[in-house]
Design brief:
The chain has 259 residues and is an alpha+beta fold. Among the domains are: 107 residues, Ku70, Chain: A, Domain 2; 40 residues, no CATH class. Helices cover 22% and strands 28% of the residues. It is extended, with a radius of gyration of 28 Å.
Length: 259
């Protein structure tokens, strides 16, 4: 089942425009997540922003972004300021140029997203754009605003749809020459090693990238979940903070009381 759209807008190629929706192709929603809890009471811990000088809590209405131009001196940027510098690429992916996919080094690729037609009316125009891209054998380069930052993006046909990759900024990518400089020149490959590689050829399996630590955490949670820390009720009645209760034993006692 398709997930909720992460971004909605338009895809434009030459004179053809169609509405599209985008959703990330990868997700961390299945990862085991923890909340901070007071070990003495079993209650969840809250986090708050404090004024660094007065040490008083800062309400959400007073929290604004600031750029530090000197020590302890900030330029405050309001929401209206961000809107004033918004770019046209906020809602339109206009493909202005195409390049061979092989010409873009792997290190520039960031996060993949699925790009799909936004409605049934635009599905035909979407198919026209996708078919033209597939026939050309090229990938499209565009720009798109995500989370208030303009990103260079790559669009390529995949199966029946399109995949959009965000690309790293130029100052994020490190040149490889400095890292390879002191390495020896590659020699002739050892036939035995080449043969060993051939003997290990296999088909890709997603089982190779499963997280064994996550599985171990889930088993640990299931095992420790047999006991829990009971939170006090609002009226103050209930188990005192920190008492460990075995749920199975509590159920047995309840059944004995009820006969």
């Amino acid at each position: 089942m398709a997930r909720q759209a992460y971004w909605k807008g338009y895809l434009k190629l030459s004179l053809v425009t169609c509405p599209v929706v985008m959703t990330p192709a990868v997700s961390e929603s299945g990862a085991v997540r923890f909340k901070m809890v007071n070990g003495a009471t079993g209650n969840q811990v809250e986090s708050r922003y404090l004024d660094a000088i007065t040490k008083k809590p800062v309400p959400p209405a007073q929290q604004v972004k600031g750029y530090e131009q000197a020590e302890n001196e900030y330029v405050l940027i309001e929401d209206e300021d961000f809107e004033a510098v918004a770019l046209e690429s906020t809602r339109t992916i206009e493909i202005a140029q195409f390049v061979p996919a092989a010409s873009i080094d792997w290190v520039w690729y960031d996060v993949p997203h699925f790009l799909l037609p936004g409605d049934k009316v635009g599905a035909e125009a979407f198919a026209v754009i996708r078919a033209a891209m597939e026939q050309s054998g090229m990938v499209g380069i565009s720009r798109l605003v995500l989370q208030r930052r303009e990103r260079a993006v790559l669009v390529e046909p995949r199966e029946k749809g399109l995949v959009l990759w965000t690309l790293h900024y130029g100052d994020e990518v490190r040149g490889e020459a400095d890292y390879w400089a002191d390495l020896p020149e590659p020699g002739k490959p050892d036939p035995a090693i080449v043969k060993a590689i051939g003997a290990r050829l296999d088909h890709w399996s997603k089982e190779w990238v499963e997280d064994p630590v996550q599985k171990a955490l889930l088993r640990l949670i299931a095992r420790k979940g047999k006991t829990s820390r009971r939170r006090p009720t609002e009226s103050g009645r209930g188990t005192s903070g920190g008492e460990v209760v075995n749920l199975v034993d509590a159920l047995k006692r309840s059944l004995r009381k009820s006969g």
